C-alpha cells in the first residue's frame, strides 16, 4: 500500500465520519482532542476503516487507534503482514 | 444465525419459559449455559440436560454477575448469544383499598422488581457484550420483555421494568449493530407458566383469557420458538417481537 494512498483514504474516512474538513485531519489529531470523537464514533470509524481497507482489526488494535498517526501505523503494520 | 455449536447463555433457564428455550436451543445443538438463582431447579435441569452448564447466580446483584460471567468467559470465551429471560412477575396497583383504607404500592417490591427485571438485564448485557466486543464476536442479545411494557393496570413495577427493557433493546441495537451485535426483544402475552399462576388470581386469569382473541394462554414452547425465530433471522434488529395471541392491553 502506498503511503500517500493510505494517508488520503484515512483522511477521507475520518473526514466523513467525524464531519471534519480534510485539512483538519493531521497526524496529531487524537480522540482526546475532539469532542465528537467519542467511543461510539470511534467504533463507527473502525467499521468504516475496516470496510475501506478490507481489514478486520483486533480489539488491541482498536484500542491503539486513537489518533490519526496510530491509525496509519496499524494499517501499515497490517499491510506489511500481508 | 445458525445456532449449531453457538455458545448461548440463558438467564432464568431452570424453569418456565427459560427452560423451554433451553430445550429448543439444545435440540439445535447449541452449547447452552444457564444462569439462575434457583439451585433446586438447576439440579433438576442438570439431571435432564446434562450438557447444559449450570451457574447459580443472583443476576440482580452486580458483583455476582461480574464474577459469574468472568468465570464463564474464562472457560468458554465470549458467548455468541445472551437471552435475558430471568425476572419476576409481580402485580399490584399504585394505590389500593385495603382493610385499613388506602395503601400505597410496596416500595420494597418496586425496587425488587426493577432490580430483577431491569437492572439484571443491564448487568448481564454489559458483562457479556463487553467480551463480545473484545473478541469481535458477532453476537445476539435477546431480551424477554412483555406485553405489559405498554402499560398494564395493576402492574406498575413490572410494566415499568419491561418498558425499560424495550428502551434498552432499541438503544443497544443502535449502539452495537455497527459491531455486528444484534439486540432484539420478544414480548410474550399471558403464558402458561408457574409464575403467571402465582402472580394472577384464577378470576383475573379467566378474564384475561377472554380478552385474548385466540381465547387461550400462550404455551412456553411457542414463546421459545419465537426466541429461536429472532435468533435465526439476521435482519431482525432493535425491535420487539410480540407473541400475545392478538391481545392488546
What is the averaged pLDDT score of chain A? 92
- Major beta-sheet overview of chain A: none
The strand count of chain A comes to 0
Helix/strand-derived category of chain B reads alpha/beta
For the report, how would you describe the main beta sheet of chain B? 7 strands, parallel
Give the strand tally of chain B: 9
Biggest sheet: strand arrangement of chain B: 3-2-1-4-7-8-9
Entry keywords:
heterodimer, A: about 80 residues, mainly alpha, 4 helices, about 60% helix, B: about 250 residues, alpha/beta, 7-stranded parallel beta sheet, two-stranded antiparallel ribbon, 8 helices, about 45% helix, about 15% strand, globular
Summarize the structure in words.
The complex is a heterodimer of chains A (82) and B (249). Chain A is mostly helical. Chain A is built from four helices and no strands. In chain A, helix 1 (3-18) packs across helix 2 (39-53) and helix 1 crosses helix 4 (68-81). The N and C termini of chain A lie close together (10 Å). The model of chain A has no long low-confidence stretch (mean pLDDT 92). Chain B has helices at 16-27, 39-48, 62-76, 107-134, 156-176, 194-199, 202-211, 220-232, and strands at residues 7-11, 31-36, 53-56, 81-84, 95-98, 101-104, 140-144, 182-188, 240-243. In chain B, strand 5 and strand 6 (101-104) form a beta hairpin. Chain B is globular, with a radius of gyration of 18 Å. In chain B, the strands form two sheets. Chain B has a seven-stranded parallel sheet, with helices on both faces. A two-stranded antiparallel sheet of chain B has the order 5-6. The longest helix of chain B has 28 residues, at 107-134. Classes of the chains: A mainly alpha (82), B alpha/beta (249). Chain A binds chain B through residues 40, 43-44, 47, 56, 58-59, and chain B through 133-136, 175, 178-179.
Amino acid at each position: 500500500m502506498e503511503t500517500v494512498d493510505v494517508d488520503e483514504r484515512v483522511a477521507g474516512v475520518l473526514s466523513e465520519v467525524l464531519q471534519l474538513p480534510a485539512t483538519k485531519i493531521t497526524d496529531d489529531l487524537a480522540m482526546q482532542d475532539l469532542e465528537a470523537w467519542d467511543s461510539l464514533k470511534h467504533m463507527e470509524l473502525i467499521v468504516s476503516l475496516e470496510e475501506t481497507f478490507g481489514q478486520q482489526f483486533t480489539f488491541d488494535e482498536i484500542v491503539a487507534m486513537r489518533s490519526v498517526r496510530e491509525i496509519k501505523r496499524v494499517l501499515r503494520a497490517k499491510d506489511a503482514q500481508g | 444465525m445458525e445456532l449449531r455449536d453457538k455458545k448461548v447463555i440463558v438467564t432464568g433457564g431452570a424453569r418456565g419459559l427459560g427452560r423451554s428455550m433451553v430445550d429448543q436451543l439444545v435440540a439445535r445443538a447449541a452449547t447452552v449455559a444457564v444462569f439462575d438463582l434457583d439451585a433446586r431447579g438447576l439440579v433438576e435441569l442438570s439431571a435432564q440436560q446434562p450438557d447444559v452448564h449450570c451457574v447459580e447466580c443472583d443476576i440482580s446483584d452486580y458483583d455476582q454477575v461480574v464474577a459469574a460471567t468472568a468465570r464463564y468467559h474464562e472457560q468458554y470465551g465470549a458467548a455468541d448469544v445472551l437471552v435475558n429471560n430471568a425476572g419476576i412477575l409481580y402485580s399490584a396497583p399504585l394505590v389500593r383499598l385495603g382493610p385499613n383504607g388506602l395503601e400505597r404500592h410496596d416500595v420494597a417490591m418496586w425496587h425488587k422488581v426493577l432490580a430483577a427485571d431491569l437492572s439484571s438485564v443491564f448487568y448481564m448485557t454489559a458483562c457479556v457484550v463487553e467480551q463480545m466486543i473484545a473478541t469481535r464476536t458477532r453476537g445476539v442479545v435477546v431480551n424477554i420483555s412483555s406485553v405489559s411494557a405498554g402499560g398494564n393496570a395493576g402492574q406498575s413495577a413490572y410494566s415499568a421494568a419491561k418498558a425499560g427493557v424495550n428502551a434498552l433493546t432499541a438503544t443497544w441495537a443502535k449502539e452495537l449493530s455497527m459491531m455486528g451485535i444484534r439486540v432484539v426483544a420478544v414480548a410474550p402475552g399471558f403464558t402458561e407458566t408457574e409464575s403467571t399462576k402465582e402472580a394472577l388470581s384464577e378470576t383475573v386469569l379467566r378474564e384475561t383469557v377472554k380478552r385474548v382473541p385466540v381465547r387461550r394462554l400462550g404455551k412456553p414452547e411457542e414463546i421459545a420458538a419465537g426466541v429461536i425465530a429472532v435468533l435465526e433471522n439476521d435482519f431482525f434488529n432493535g425491535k420487539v417481537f410480540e407473541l400475545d395471541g392478538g391481545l392488546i392491553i
